[in-house]
Specification:
CATH class of the largest domain: Mainly Alpha
Low-confidence stretches: none
CATH architecture of the largest domain: Up-down Bundle
CATH topology of the largest domain: Glutathione S-transferase Yfyf (Class Pi), Chain A, domain 2
Number of domains: 2
Shape: globular
Number of strands: 4
Helix content: 55-70%
Keywords: Transferase
Bound molecules: glutathione
Family: Belongs to the GST superfamily.
Structural class: alpha+beta
Protein name: Glutathione S-transferase
Largest sheet: 4 strands, mixed
Number of helices: 8
GO molecular function: transferase activity
Order of helices and strands: EHEHEEHHHHHH
Strand order of the largest sheet: 2-1-3-4
InterPro entries: Glutathione-S-Trfase_C-like, Glutathione-S-Trfase_C_sf, Glutathione_S-Trfase, Glutathione_S-Trfase_N, GST_C, Thioredoxin-like_sf
Strand content: 5-15%
Radius of gyration: 17 Å
């Protein structure tokens, strides 16, 4: 089996990198220099026509979208390692629920705040009303996450799973890049801390 992982540090690829390390699978890494525009080269576009990282090639089959890649890796390698629930179980249903919510709902809100506030984007494209609306949604979603994590260490089952890696990675990125305040949500703050300090994630950060 061969796995090639295309990534750029501190991007959406980071959570896939973390998951690969947690799973302990063998893979080859290829760094894509986004600033140099390597994502637009024909050979990369043949793998991901969107010209974005991450991408993964498994035995010649290209994949893109970090969530799809994590779900694939979980099904294929995570069950035996106790990092992903077996399909058909209640925990699998919960894992899908929370990982998709984290990427689509919570992740979507985080990106709306980012696009409408961050100096990387031209002032004329940033909309204060949109940012304010997204911040309100973010508060409501943090409350949901905090309730879920109150009295439990991880999002699904008793132990850490790839759901925790995927979701805490996105939130930790948001806290760094958009300076969001989550002090009113102690269960969320403790969970992020618990997750990002795992050796696999520390190894990814150290290598970046
Ligand atoms: N929804 C995609 C997002 C991928 C994405 O936006 N990647 C960014 C880095 S975070 C990228 O490669 N941008 C390069 C570009 O747009 O030129 C995923 O989760 O994989």
């Amino acid at each position: 089996m061969s796995i090639t992982f295309y990534y750029t540090p501190r991007t959406s690829a980071t959570r896939v990198h973390w998951v690969l390390e947690e799973l302990g699978v063998r893979y080859e890494k290829v760094k894509v220099d986004l600033r140099a525009g390597e994502q637009h080269k024909p050979e990369f576009l043949a793998i991901n026509p969107n010209g974005k990282v991450p991408a993964l090639v498994v035995d010649g089959t290209p994949m893109f979208e970090s969530l799809a890649i994590i779900l694939y890796l979980g099904d294929r390698f995570g069950v035996d390692k106790g990092l992903w629930p077996r399909v058909g179980t209640g925990e699998h249903a919960e894992a899908l629920t929370w990982i998709v919510w984290g990427s689509v709902t919570l992740g979507g809100t985080i990106f709306r705040i980012f696009f409408n506030t961050h100096e990387w984007f031209p002032a004329e494209s940033r909309n204060a009303a949109q940012a304010e609306a997204a911040r309100k949604e973010f508060e409501a979603e943090l409350k949901i996450l905090d309730q879920r994590l109150t009295g439990r260490d991880y999002l699904v089952g008793r132990d850490f799973t790839l759901v925790d890696a995927a979701n805490s990675s996105a939130l930790a990125w948001a806290l760094t890049f958009i300076k969001l305040d989550i002090s009113a949500y102690p269960a969320v703050a403790a969970w992020i801390d618990r997750c990002v300090n795992r050796p696999a994630n520390r190894a990814v950060s150290a290598a970046s």
